[in-house]
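Why predict the complex rather than its parts? Because the way molecules touch one another can change local conformation, and only a joint prediction can capture that. The input here totals 1536 residues.
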Amino acid sequence: MIAGIIGAAGYAGSELIRLLSGHPEITGLVLASVSRPGENIASIYPNFLGPGKMKNNPALAKFGNAGSTLTTPEELVARSDVVFGALPAGTGEGYAKASLDRGISYIDLSADFRFDDDEETYRSWYGIPWQYPELHRRSVYGLPELNRNRIKEAGSPVIIGNPGCYPTAVTLACYPALAEAGGNNSKSSIKPVSAPIIAAAVSGVTGAGREPGRVQHFPECSDSVSAYKVGSHRHIPEISRTMTKIAGRTISLVFTPHLGPLNRGILATVYISLEQPPKAGSVQPQTKEAAEKETAIREQYALFYKDEPFVRVLPKTVTAATNRVRQSNYCDMSIHLDHTGSVLIVVSAIDNMVKGAAGQAVQNMNIIFGFDETAGLTAVPALF
Amino acid sequence: MIAGIIGAAGYAGSELIRLLSGHPEITGLVLASVSRPGENIASIYPNFLGPGKMKNNPALAKFGNAGSTLTTPEELVARSDVVFGALPAGTGEGYAKASLDRGISYIDLSADFRFDDDEETYRSWYGIPWQYPELHRRSVYGLPELNRNRIKEAGSPVIIGNPGCYPTAVTLACYPALAEAGGNNSKSSIKPVSAPIIAAAVSGVTGAGREPGRVQHFPECSDSVSAYKVGSHRHIPEISRTMTKIAGRTISLVFTPHLGPLNRGILATVYISLEQPPKAGSVQPQTKEAAEKETAIREQYALFYKDEPFVRVLPKTVTAATNRVRQSNYCDMSIHLDHTGSVLIVVSAIDNMVKGAAGQAVQNMNIIFGFDETAGLTAVPALF
Amino acid sequence: MIAGIIGAAGYAGSELIRLLSGHPEITGLVLASVSRPGENIASIYPNFLGPGKMKNNPALAKFGNAGSTLTTPEELVARSDVVFGALPAGTGEGYAKASLDRGISYIDLSADFRFDDDEETYRSWYGIPWQYPELHRRSVYGLPELNRNRIKEAGSPVIIGNPGCYPTAVTLACYPALAEAGGNNSKSSIKPVSAPIIAAAVSGVTGAGREPGRVQHFPECSDSVSAYKVGSHRHIPEISRTMTKIAGRTISLVFTPHLGPLNRGILATVYISLEQPPKAGSVQPQTKEAAEKETAIREQYALFYKDEPFVRVLPKTVTAATNRVRQSNYCDMSIHLDHTGSVLIVVSAIDNMVKGAAGQAVQNMNIIFGFDETAGLTAVPALF
Amino acid sequence: MIAGIIGAAGYAGSELIRLLSGHPEITGLVLASVSRPGENIASIYPNFLGPGKMKNNPALAKFGNAGSTLTTPEELVARSDVVFGALPAGTGEGYAKASLDRGISYIDLSADFRFDDDEETYRSWYGIPWQYPELHRRSVYGLPELNRNRIKEAGSPVIIGNPGCYPTAVTLACYPALAEAGGNNSKSSIKPVSAPIIAAAVSGVTGAGREPGRVQHFPECSDSVSAYKVGSHRHIPEISRTMTKIAGRTISLVFTPHLGPLNRGILATVYISLEQPPKAGSVQPQTKEAAEKETAIREQYALFYKDEPFVRVLPKTVTAATNRVRQSNYCDMSIHLDHTGSVLIVVSAIDNMVKGAAGQAVQNMNIIFGFDETAGLTAVPALF
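Output of the joint prediction:
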């Protein structure tokens, strides 16, 4: 099967190259760039250069010969069996339409197809109207843990709105708490109250993309951590609407992204109020009752995700860290109760370029085509 | 004036050396180590080695000759005019007593004197009883922005419980909101509701001290971010009790520390609920009303801290980052409202080794002795 | 085929797990530890934890079930078809003997089998005598670019002395220059004079292994670069003897290792004097003649390595960097002449944990067993 | 005294602000920018923002009020008592002339005044002719360890060509070896032969300045080390000509700069051949004779620099590292002989922004005006 990547010169595009070149079902790659057609991908990414004897590397062979020169998006659509769009928001609708018109699926890594038919919310946060509103009604939000069946049942061709990096980390951290509290599970240990869910996340610098800027300038971001777009990041409506769907009631979200001096990874810490804290004047460490409740919730999370190939609910002794999911499609999460026992704290870790972008897109492709869902995504995480 | 540093071989001790050697009122330093008396400080910290012509460096001259060999704590107390204790929790009470007995002040950088007379809370979190309970009644919690007058009025000799790094960053971020809401200021824009305050913070690795361990092993913490002691860190009771004092009512705190791949710095993000969020189904960006409210709160914060030499309430265009306070005693804070306008988000940044430890200790010394409060602490932050 | 890894708890061992779990010819892994038998590998490396549905990850399945508990080296040898020894120098000879006695090959990642039968040199640098000198006569130095045929012809079982990380980077950088100058190639552009070869290299911190120590303590090695074991590193005799073999005359080497704040990677810069520099008083940029000579040498290098699957001689526009070989088995090298045209400068980059350790060991295994030499090593480098 | 900084918005300019604001003889700063007059320095560098009560910070007071708005270079010259030019090569001659015409000294941090009257060499490497050749004859190369007396005797006003960062680290490492071998010291242990001096250096990313670019983009330079401008860097002629002056004979230099993932610091490793290496076939560790020779050379270096306030010849147990000179004006150097005893290896470390730029400029100012040479430069290095 031939996979096409529009936006191959960007970071998400380069990560798709890396993952798809090792995918057992992909026999060739077609790469395109809107702004740089005609260039060789290895002149942009010399890490993709072939060795003297390239034929010995089957991964390189997939894109190292015919595929190595960037083509135009139009030609790419004509030559591919599935298309990945790794483009800025507001620029991919036309390629989605062209793909569908040709009868092939389009997996979009931008925000364009993450809002079903809710153009108003999209436009109020992204400032761009939709060109083909009817396409959006045919799209599926590609969070497999939530929508696996919808993706399977959508039928080909389909448009996938691949989730954002922060939404993936935050939503997976909240999903069991919100779903299980939905009235159906009377034995659930998790009973969220109606307070807003607070989510703080730290992202690596690759999240800001390939274009150099002051914020990503090494001397001004290394050895430092900062917050940005506090309470106003565009991923807020994406997360809120998914949470609201899961819970079956309006969920209010407060979200603060931070930038840390790391290449890859997102660590999200999510606070879900379960009940009012006790009024006691003195502050004591976690009680035995709270510890037992914490254990029960951890087990409930583990049970909830037991069949998921890429979610790891960590044992009590391990707290989530981004280096344990490096270059893998895993979402790790550790489960904690605060010292008063009234707030559930879930810490989740993903690789923003894999589960937060290219890996999840490959996972969606696997589901669409009925491949093993882990195909091309079985690499063990590299701790360092 | 001669300053003594017990625990000079640790990181907080070495930072005290760095700051006090440039202090205009300090004419000499005496260094002591409980475990390594007799060693030369420059064999532990070769960055403190003197050049060929040491007499030209007045900073080095303060400790480079007689002071360069580590002495015992007992001898240090006998030779000093003020004593800094940079020791593990539970080990400094004896030196505090010896200092007071000699009539000199003791500034303690551990947690031992941060709880006034509340031995129960200290013991339940630190697991150590107090040896000299009466000393604690004579101690003052050394957060100058809160207790400047208490420190001035305590009279010499005094024991200062120098605040923890996280408590400094979190408490200063909440102080105006909690103080101004205390009923006295009916025009305040800030009206916290009774929900718990959520605080997430990222710390640099120096916070874990000088002893090598797996968590601080470069290959396992660089290029990664993680959480630790989630909801159970020992700084929780310290922060809670100060907040409760400020607010005049019980404040519940949920606190999660994180470790980031940076040497110095703490970035704390604090969420203070002002009211219930609107129930509206769709999620919209910040409204004009919310933006005005945000501006009003920022101005209220700026006014609150207008006479503070080390607190900078940042303009709207700047968000707090640790590299802008590097090696300075500043606490920077940026003020934000979430998109619904119902949660106040304050992001504060300090250098954990300066305002979070040694610098604040020097600031306390300046207050005790009536020096200019900024003496020895005027260095402009080094962005990189 | 079942592969056994003795020393699986160390960094080289963990990297072997990562690579071999994705190797198409390996059906199972047996892991052993001398000091920690009985522990589960995932309690040491939580990145290796299985997800809920582990059966979906064929990589984990190879060691996630029976193989997940560390066994003893003795039992490992009994259960494996090939054994990798990732142990400190001086501790693996017995396991090599046991493997050979059982008729299986032993690939040693320590320095023990890198010196053929030259026990004197080994002992003078490592301070340890050999227990089984006869084993060493049956060993082959496993630098495939140099000894591929010797490895193939050795017959099974064989002992491989897998090269050190610095020796791999430095030797590959010098190999064409020394080999081509050996009298056989009268048209060579490269004519080294008898001056010592100078090699400077920077290594990532994983090179120092998993045990925490002051040198690898984040606050004392991050954001800093240092030299160590200047002119006295144990890799000197290993490199010298290989160079001398290649050149057919005694080659003198001066080598300085440095430590840089990166996890993985070695960048080696090697200086080979081609002739005496001109005596001209004024210093001018590279002349046209020198530029042409540089191009000729680059082409000669490219030709020399044209059939190598893992050596990339970079085009003129690209200079070697460690991030372009990250997590791959490549050795990149860029070719330069100094401004006077008299010194050849080769900059080579490897991933110290892959081509400098585990990857090269897998490459050697592939050669021994007649697998495709790139099997299990085809992953495209991850730039970040 | 009022100091003016042209190019205050660049990194070297910002470092001059940091150092001069703490200088006891400087009472005010005037800041100028060629491209951004009218902007406030704190909008470019928010780390320079004043706190609420700025008057308490005497350092900020120097530039925080009148001086905080960037003026034009012309106005700056009119208002200053000494001018620092922190500008790109080829743009500062006019300001040097204007300063001299006004009777005030000009300290140039670019390469423009580092070549005495040798315009040909400057032009062949920098590609720019001189506008005022006569100015260059009045300039002094500002390496105080070499030219202290020339600077003192030049008389005011003077133009100082402040040395480059690499030239400072490399030249100081070679100075004793080349000077002592000059025939005058028959008892010297150091007898360089006529082979080229090889210098390899790793620099932090601040060396590339404030403008974002791909090379300094965090995801492409963090966790990686690379070489650049191999054998062709513009600092080569600057270093060569100084070495040649010191030695009294033509010294050939081969120089390779590298980029490492650190903010500040240069580590230079310099190889000086003392004699032909022995021809012995086997490679042995350093002999007792070589160790004694190494000690003698170290002592000779220490003696050579004994009166220097900023050069530290390290004891045998300490090897140079950039974090031990962080934010200080020190040049550390460790002295080694290779294992054969025939090549002297000197490793030197500086902070590229201090001794390699702004600090050395301040040191030159101190010499010109007869201040204590360490004034404003006494801060103890911050290890982290």
